[in-house]
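tool=predict chain=A
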Amino acid sequence: MARLAQTAGLTDVQSEILATVRQFVDKEVIPRAQELEHSDTYPADIVEGMKEMGLFGLTIPEEYGGLGESLLTYALVVEEIARGWMSVSGVINTHFIVAHMIKQHGTLEQKQHFLPRMATGEVRGSFSMSEPDLGSDVAAIKTRARKTDDGYVIDGSKMWLTNGGSSNLIALLVKTDEGAEKAHQNLTTFLIEKPEGFGEVAPGLTIPGKIDKMGYKGVDTTEAVFDGYKVGADKVLGEAPGKGFAYMMDGVEVGRVNVAARACGIAIRAFELAVEYAQQRKTFGKAIAEHQAIAFKLAEMATKVEAAHLMMVNAARLKDSGARNDVEAGMAKLIASEYCAEVTQDSFRIHGGYGYSKEYEIERLMREAPFLLIGEGTSEIQKTIISRGLLREYKSRS
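tool=predict ok
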């Protein structure tokens, strides 16, 4: 058992799930990740394996066919999967967010309709807030849903949908005319069912194709173009127009814990590769791990891995308790993503020239780690969230 990133107080069930996932990652994911990533191939067989393990229903209540596990279990599973290949964790990330939103805010009919099929992986979710010109200003969304006699008509373009082509359910945030003074109170979340694939997948809905990325290969990242797309009023999440922003932010808190977990997984793998290589590679008659410069670097890397893991676990446990965790999730995402980039670069340096070769795993991690600096909100956005929360708690009485 590795010394780093251990979690105290787990149940026997949690420990068994994590041991099973780790075995699956070591056997099925790590040996195939390089080939699939370099060819930008969707990991279909690996996804089928996750379905068989019940991972798509990990956090879905047992009454709907899921395992009913906590956000902590989910985060630790994501950490294990990202240790093998971050793209595989991306396949289930948006699915978990959408399932959480339906579980927490959906009507009884929506839960009964979606959750049992989401638990098996038959229905797979993607999550759509971003737009081509949007950035972090969610209230400036331009995609609009216009109310009609028999539902809504949606027009506009969305961007950066992870699993946009491979999913068949989109949680979509758009603008509606609710007459509210505050912009975010005129935002509504729709549950859009669609076929998998690319092109015009439904009348008025086009998924143009995969966006070519520096890293995060295999998993599809897409646009979604709505042009007169018709949807029924029953597809409004919770049947409550104007509450979509709050529902999405609840999902984003889950997503930030997920990004922190993914960052921990990559950092763990980068450390594992570095500490193994440093004991094999010899210079000046001894392993480079025995040189103080490398030994100190390994010590710093391990400390960062441990700190990030503990903060991620704390944020997950807070969310599970029902407490507000926006600050803690922001802190975990901030430190885990920044430390992940630093640990990965240190591992790259320890590998020397071999780290620049595509034959070595660290080259892939170097391209994957930067994504976590921007996913689910940049480090600067996290600092904004953290500082606002701190000022709210430590409000001056002078």
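The first helix runs from residue 12 to 38. The mean pLDDT is 94.
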